[in-house]
Write a structure and sequence with these properties.
alpha+beta, ten-stranded mixed β-sheet
Amino acid sequence: MSDQTTDLKQIIASAKRLGVVIDEADALQWLAQMAANPTEGDVVVDVGTGVFGHKAVMLDFSSADLAHFRKIGDLVEFGDEPGVVETALALSGSAAQSKIQTYPGDADFFERVNIKAPTQEEACRILSRILRRKALDTRKGDHYQLIEVRMGSYPSDVVRDGRLNKAGGSLTWSPEEIERGFVEGTSPEGEPVRLDWEAMAHNAGWTKLDWVVADPLRKELINASNMLDVTWEAPDGSIVALDGYLDPYFQEVYLEAESIPIFSKLARNVAGNALDEYVDALEEQIAKYITDDLNYGKAAKRMYNVFRLTGRYEEALYLRELFDEPATVLYQIWALIRTIDDVFFPGSTFSKEQLMAQAQELIMLVIRVLEGGEEEAIVSLLLRLRDELGRHDPSEGLSEEAEVARAEVIRVVNNFYYERMIGVVRIKDYMEKLGWQVR
């Protein structure tokens, strides 16, 4: 018996003990596909749909919802400007893993935006222009609402809305602040601070847009985001990442074959040690989610990506199954809670009745998929949350009872992933290496 078969049997035994079902035949097929060497590099193109991406990502992607995601992509994507701006839009996160996540929590996008300009300063001005135009053009519509944009970094400690934001932290902009062109705050000593949009674009850093979108066919609200990787192409053809780092392509499914030329041009400039850096960054996030900012579901997703890219395929296989039904339903709960946080305020595009209807749909889904004590606990909490939404006006914010129900839902979901992760010795050992301690 090979070492891989022995390892797989141990993982399957652990999974069975923890109530996670793994089909051995399917598992062996996936392991064989992961171990196989691609014919041309690491990028695979699906000729039938035109989508492409790293081979490990493409194994997890299902084209069943491609039309749905392309429609949302029409909202979030940036337009090309011949000779000035060229783009390549991709799915990322759970949306790029729709084969293993039956109910992706969000619609996360990633877009490479390459700006051709005579100088880097001019490229930053172009970024400022297209980002502001995109934000204001998609600020509010019948089926969408812009929540915030991240662009720029705090040059010093700044207090906004009673919260201290440390120097170097990501700067968030509301649609109103983008329209007026600046954000205001104070120094910790109380001195007024004003940060201008144009100036911040010259040190754009982490650039991301977040919307809530209503899907009339699915009758649900979802969070949609677009993370930008912005580059400047100088007249000599050299490529410079405006945030100082050209992102690798280990977690994206690109939506259009027409994007292959720009993707290929940028991919040639990705650092040779990009995989190591990517894994290091993921492990920093995992350490955060299992020690300080507890979120075992997010930790599990990042571990899966680390394991499948570093040859720990048996552990990856186990975590892969955690996001199949019924566990993946729990990610919908996270999504609902985030959506409530984002749109429960006066003047929102979306009514509290829409949020209540979505909570009701999720309750029915939980009843249909989950079983036993987990179902009862989560349904009870979601009912409380739904009812509290109905009793209060958005201008009042979430009530204390709704906040309690919200916190309890998060706790139950967290415990689900926690128990199934520490139940596998090799995953538990990995968590301990990253600083996790028995709680």
